[in-house]
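# nightly structure sweep
# worker-07 picked up a monomer target from the shared queue
# config: single-sequence mode, recycle default, output format = C-alpha cells
# input follows
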Amino acid sequence: MYCSTRRARGLAVLTLTVVSAGLLAGCGNSDNSSTSTPSTSVSPTVSESAATAVSITDPWVKAADKGMTAAFGTLVNNTDKPLTVVSASSSVSVMELHEMVMKDGKMIMQPKTNGFTLPAKGSHELSPGGDHLMFMDVKTPVKAGDEVTITLKLSDGSSVPFTAVGKPYSGAEESYAPDGGMDMTDSHNGADASASPSA
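# output follows
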C-alpha cells in the first residue's frame, strides 16, 4: 500500500514537471515570435503628402489692378526623386507656367509646355526675367500686402497650395507680342528684370 501511494505521488510530481516545462517552452516561443516580427510602421516617405514634398520659399505676386501679373519664389523639392509642376491655378485669374527665351535678339515670354522640373532634393527659381507663374487676366485687384492663394498641380496629380504676398514692383512690364509670345522691352531686361521687389 505504501509503495503504491509513493509511486502515485512520484507520477504526479513528474507530470507537473513535464506540464510546467511545456508551458514555459510555449511562453518562450511566443516571446521569440513577437520580437522577430518585422515592424509594420509606414515609412515617412511613403506617407509623405504633396504639401511636404514641395515647398515654396519667399513667394510673392507683383501688385496689379487688372491685366497680367506674375508670381515668383523658389520651388523646393524635398523628396529623393524629380518632380514636375505642370500647372497653376488661383481664384484671382487664369494662370499659366511661363519661361523666358531669346528670339530675334529679344527676350520673349512663352508658355512652359513641359512644366517646371524640380530635381531631387533641389530647387527651381521663379523670378522676374525668368520662369514664373503668370496671371493672364486679373479679375480681382492684387494690392500690396494682399495674400493670394495659388495651387500648383504636379505631374502625379497631387496639388500643392501656398500663399503669396502682393508687392509693388515696377519691372517686368509684359505685353503680348504679335507672334503669340510676350515681348520684354529693353528697359526691362538685364538688371531691372532681375531686381528684387520693393517691400
